[in-house]
Amino acid sequence: SEFVPVVKTGIFIYLALLLSALAWVYYQFGDQLLQVIDDVWFLGGVVFIPAFIAIDGLARMGELSSSLQLVPKNAFAISFLIQCFGMSVGSLVWIRRFYGGGHVPPGDRIDGYSFIAIVFTVLVATLPALLVTQFAIVDSVDGALLLNAFKWGSVVLGIVLLIFTWSLKRVKPYRFSPEYSDIYWLFFLGLVGGVITAFFSVGVGELVAVYLILRKFPTVAAVALAVVISAVTVIAGVWIHIIENNIIWPIALMAVPGAMVGGFVARLFALALGPIWLKTFASVWITLSSLYLIFGPSLGVMPAN
């Protein structure tokens, strides 16, 4: 309860800043959106790498404007930008529910001090690792190699999560604050996740969520923590892509509103599914979308690499 006034004020200020940033982006790049809007019939929600690769495939096959062709760096850069808005909205929704006066069942929440401790522990490792990797390592790695690593790594992650979800489905959450060993592991995962996120735009949130779930923290709390950590991470990491002009703005501008709506309704979706089916849905989506990337060229729905 001591967090409620601060949380409500912070949410209002951050939301105002977020909407101001969105308005500025549309003011600066809205004309580019109008140039291609007739070619694309959907106006938002394209927030995953597989969707970007599908757009690239359609553009290369002549179904969409050639200006929508992407290389891996473009896809990951757009994902960074979109997540800045989508994850930010998701963070505000989860924080409002947990600590801004929303109702959370006792079995789904952790106290505010534990929440802050986990977020801080991860970010103090993630942000330096992210920035060092972006400025010193990313450009030296082949983009096609990165994309292949993303595909197969995602398949493995999805399968592992699915196996653990159903093998441990009868185990109830019982841990609501981190132990000393958790702090060390979360710091390590922050380092690893920062490096992975620098390459793929995703990673640290997923690692933290999987770790917390396996450690028997409430699934809803694990998701909330992952969203907040991801939001801060992508905001820190998007700037290099803006400076280097890696973002294809028409695609980003079409996707951002859908991502923001998705960030708002994701909480309702997560609560409606429940912990087991939420993890099942996530693992199946990760696995199938990655398999699409791997086998899409041979099926003729994507251009060959």
For the structure shown, list the relevant keywords.
mainly alpha; globular; 10 helices; 305 residues
Overview of the molecule:
The protein starts with a helix and ends in a 6-residue tail after the last helix. It has one domain (4-299). The chain contains ten helices and no strands. The longest helix is centred in the last third of the chain and has 51 residues, at 249-299. It has helices at residues 4-36, 49-60, 72-99, 112-136, 143-167, 180-200, 204-214, 219-237, 239-243, 249-299. The protein has 305 residues and is mainly alpha-helical. Mean pLDDT is 77; it is low at 37-48.
Class inferred from helices and paired strands: mainly alpha
Number of domains: 1
Oligomer designation: single chain
Number of helices: 10
Q: Can you give the mean pLDDT? A: 77
Describe the largest sheet: none
The helix/strand order is HHHHHHHHHH
Unreliable spans are 37-48
Number of strands: 0
Q: Please bin the fraction of helical residues.
A: over 70%
The rough form would be described as globular
Distance between the termini: 54 Å
The proportion of strand residues reads under 5%
Rounded radius of gyration (Å): 19 Å
Quick rundown:
The protein has ten helices and no strands. The protein has 305 residues and is an all-alpha fold.
Write the layout of secondary structure elements.
Blueprint: H1 4-36, H2 49-60, H3 72-99, H4 112-136, H5 143-167, H6 180-200, H7 204-214, H8 219-237, H9 239-243, H10 249-299
Helix pairs in contact: 1-3, 1-10, 3-8, 3-10, 4-6, 4-8, 5-10, 6-7, 7-8
